[in-house]
Design goal:
Blueprint lengths: L5 H12 L8 E6 L3 H12 L3 E7 L5 H8 L8 E3 L2 H7 L4 E4 L6 H10 L3 E5 L6 H14 L3 E4 L6 H12 L5 E9 L19 H4 L1 H11 L5 E9 L17 H7 L5 E8 L3 E8 L10 E5 L2 E5 L13 E7 L2 E7 L8 H15 L7 H20 L3 E2 L6
Parallel strand pairs: 1-2, 1-4, 2-3, 4-5, 5-6, 7-10
Antiparallel strand pairs: 7-11, 8-9, 8-15, 9-10, 11-12, 12-13, 13-14
Helix pairs in contact: 1-11, 2-11, 5-6, 6-12, 7-9, 9-12
The protein binds nicotinamide-adenine-dinucleotide.
Nicotinamide-adenine-dinucleotide binds next to helix 2.
């Protein structure tokens, strides 16, 4: 089993209890100034103990426009055309790696090698080999690497883990997870291998896998039989236009998955049945269900699957000979999930603590994604081999 997320729980408790110490400011650099970098920036700007001092993006003028959109004076930060020159010239405590998936590994390795702590957006990487290379750099650097799974901060996600850990379900033997959209291909930089590497599988599949794998303590994946398709992304009838492309252009450049399914065997005899979709002729491929020898949990899917619980969960157990159903209400988050994601990372950096969402867990998530892609290409089940780090 991979390490548990007690670090995250402690960090979240600390967020609630402690006033922010502003005697030292965390010097932050942004790698990539696209859409998700804005979500990071809004949070960094909220915290008096963090300052964005530099940013890098290879698209000329993009970082300057990003500053103006986010209320930052472009003259007050150093702007670079690539992450390597930013790392070479700046004394940074932390970076947010907010690039498209294909450059996650290189940017993170370079930052860690430069002695900088990293908050890396999801998915971890494109391939398992990349994830292993990143973790070797992490180990050699002694720096913090946290992966940007903000659903981990969601009290409903934490409740799923608490229910499993309470023993109410007994020994878990089968999990069905995943979700999807009838139509919801994000376009932009998400649909080409050269930028995204993987499609729905990496974009939303990683959340779905994390929801259940984290709940059961991240057992090691052993084998996978995977399937991927792209019938919708490649058809201009089903893919939309975006800011820079017509629907026809997007269909022509689409070369990732828009649907994936897999049957995965996990250490300890647990079966994981998974499907994820950006587009299909169905509202949802089903709710998430966790079957145990004493009880079961149903977690409703959402219309737009992105790592959230779709409604009140149901716990099925037998009580004194009666089959019972207990409704688990939706719990409100104490703070916006992104706020907790950035705050917990800053606290780990300031206190030299552990990563709120450690790579040692997400490695297994990435190994499954990598295994699905390889198995789909070969058309057969494969073993998942994870190198020592
Ligand atoms: N956590 C979430 O809720 C969430 C939501 C959306 C996207 N994401 C993730 O965030 C990442 C970025 O998504 P986005 O929508 O912002 O993409 P985007 O294409 O809008 O932005 C990515 C930016 O990175 C820049 N870039 C690429 N390589 C770079 C490099 N080597 N150095 C500096 N900049 C570089 C690009 O030029 C681009 O401006 C993706 O991996 C995506 O999966 C996470």
């Amino acid at each position: 089993m991979a390490k548990d997320d007690s670090v995250l729980n402690q960090t979240m408790q600390a967020i609630e209890e402690k006033a922010v110490d502003t005697s030292k400011k965390v010097r932050v650099g942004l790698i990539g100034t696209g859409w998700i970098a804005e979500a990071h920036t809004k949070q960094y700007l909220k915290f008096p103990d963090a300052e964005i001092v530099a940013m890098a993006d290879p698209i000329p003028g993009k970082a300057e426009k990003f500053c103006l959109r986010n209320g930052i004076d472009p003259a007050s930060v150093h702007i670079y055309p690539d992450h390597a020159s930013m790392l070479a010239h700046e004394q940074l405590d932390a970076v947010s790696v907010c690039t498209y998936n294909a450059t996650h590994a290189q940017c993170t390795i370079d930052a860690l090698n430069a002695g900088v702590n990293v908050l890396l957006e999801k998915p971890f990487t494109v391939t398992l080999d990349e994830a292993v290379a990143v973790m070797k750099a992490e180990k050699a650097s002694g720096k913090i690497l946290s992966i940007g799974f903000q659903p981990r901060m969601d009290p409903n996600m934490q409740q799923i883990k608490k229910i499993v850990e309470s023993g109410e379900l007994g020994e878990i033997y089968y999990i069905q997870t995943g979700g999807g959209r009838r139509r919801g291909i994000p376009c932009s930089t998400f649909i080409e291998k050269k930028t995204a590497g993987i499609g729905a599988l990496g974009d939303i599949g990683c959340y779905s896998l994390d929801m259940v794998l984290n709940a059961i303590g991240y057992p090691k994946p052993l084998t996978v039989s995977g399937y991927t398709s792209n019938f919708f992304g490649t058809n201009p009838l089903y893919i939309s236009k975006d800011q820079d492309h017509t629907a026809e252009e997007n269909a022509a450049r689409f070369d990732v998955d828009d649907f994936a399914a897999a049957f995965i065997r996990l250490e300890g005899g647990v079966i994981l049945d998974f499907r994820i979709s950006w587009a299909m002729h169905l509202d949802t491929p089903g709710d998430t269900v966790i079957l145990g020898k004493k009880g079961a949990l149903r977690i409703p899917s959402t219309e737009c699957w992105n790592g959230t619980v779709g409604g009140e969960m149901t716990l099925y157990t037998d009580m004194a000979g009666l089959q019972t159903e207990t409704k688990i209400p939706i719990l409100p988050a104490p703070r916006p999930l992104f706020e907790m994601k950035i705050r917990s990372f800053l606290d780990a950096v300031k206190e030299g603590g552990k990563a709120p969402v450690p790579s040692s867990q997400i490695l297994y998530n990435q190994a499954i994604i990598d295994g699905i892609m390889k198995s789909a290409e070969l058309g057969r089940e494969i073993e998942i081999n994870i190198p020592e780090i």
